[in-house]
Structure to design on (251 residues):
C-alpha cells in the first residue's frame, strides 16, 4: 500500500512539474510575441513621427514662402494705391483751381446764391428749397437776375443738372423722381409751348415724357421737369400747383 502511494505521489509531482514547465514556456512565448509586436508598433510610430516632422517642415517652408510673396504683393498694391491717391489729389486740386478760375470769369453782378453751378460748364444754376406756383417761380428767378432753366438736350443739360443736384446734396436714384418748374409755357398761344428765350418747345419733342403734353383738365399750361438718376423728361401741368424750381443766370 505504501508503495502504491509513493508511485501516485511521484506521478502527481511529475504532472505538476510538467504543467509548470509548460506554463513557463507559454509565458515566455507570449512575452516574446508581445515584445515583437511592441517593437513593430514602435517602429511604425517612429516612421509616422518622422513623416509628420518632414511634412510639417515642408508646410512651414511653403507658409514662409507664401508670406514673403504676400508681402511683395501687398507692397506693390500699396504703391499702386498711393499712386491712385496722388492722381485723385491732383485731379481735385485741378478741379478746385478750375472752379476758382470759373468763378473769377463770371460777371461781378452774378448773385452769390447762383454761383453753385459755376463748376459745371460755367453755368450758374440755383435749385430752390421752397415749392411755389409757376408765376412765383418765374418772378423769383427774375428777382435774382436769372430765369427759369431752359432744357434743350438731355445729353447736354442732364449731366449739368444732375451735377448741381449732387453738389446741393440732392440724392438721385432711379426709383425716386424729383419735379421742378422749368422755363416754358403755352400761355400766349394754347398748345404752342415756348421757352422763355423765345425758342419753341414742340409738342413732338423727344424731351416730353411718354404721352405728354396731354393738357389734362384743359389748364396745363406750364412745364415741369421729371428727373432722377435715369430719367430727364418734361410734363405739362397746372401753373397754380406748387413745385420747386431751377433758376439759371445767363452772363
Amino acid at each position: 500500500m505504501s508503495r502504491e502511494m509513493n508511485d501516485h505521489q511521484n506521478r502527481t509531482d511529475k504532472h505538476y512539474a510538467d504543467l509548470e514547465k509548460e506554463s513557463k514556456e507559454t509565458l515566455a512565448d507570449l512575452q516574446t510575441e508581445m515584445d515583437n509586436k511592441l517593437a513593430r508598433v514602435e517602429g511604425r510610430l517612429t516612421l509616422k513621427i518622422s513623416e509628420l516632422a518632414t511634412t510639417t517642415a515642408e508646410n512651414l517652408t511653403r507658409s514662409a514662402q507664401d508670406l514673403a510673396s504676400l508681402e511683395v504683393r501687398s507692397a506693390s498694391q500699396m504703391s499702386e494705391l498711393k499712386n491712385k491717391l496722388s492722381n485723385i489729389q491732383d485731379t481735385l486740386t485741378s478741379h478746385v483751381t478750375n472752379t476758382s478760375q470759373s468763378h473769377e470769369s463770371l460777371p461781378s453782378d452774378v448773385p452769390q446764391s447762383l454761383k453753385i453751378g459755376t463748376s459745371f460748364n460755367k453755368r450758374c444754376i440755383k435749385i430752390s428749397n421752397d415749392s411755389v406756383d409757376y408765376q412765383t417761380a418765374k418772378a423769383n428767378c427774375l428777382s435774382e437776375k436769372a430765369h427759369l432753366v431752359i432744357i434743350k438736350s438731355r445729353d447736354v443739360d442732364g449731366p449739368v443738372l444732375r451735377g448741381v443736384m449732387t453738389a446741393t446734396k440732392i440724392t438721385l436714384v432711379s426709383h425716386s423722381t424729383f419735379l421742378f418748374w422749368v422755363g416754358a409755357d403755352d400761355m400766349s398761344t394754347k398748345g404752342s409751348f415756348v421757352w422763355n428765350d423765345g425758342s419753341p418747345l414742340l409738342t413732338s419733342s423727344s424731351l416730353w415724357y411718354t404721352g405728354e403734353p396731354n393738357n389734362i383738365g384743359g389748364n396745363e399750361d406750364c412745364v415741369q421737369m421729371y428727373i432722377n438718376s435715369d430719367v430727364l423728361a418734361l410734363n405739362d401741368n397746372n401753373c397754380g400747383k406748387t413745385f420747386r424750381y431751377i433758376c439759371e443766370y445767363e452772363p
Summary: The chain is about 50% helix and 15% strand.
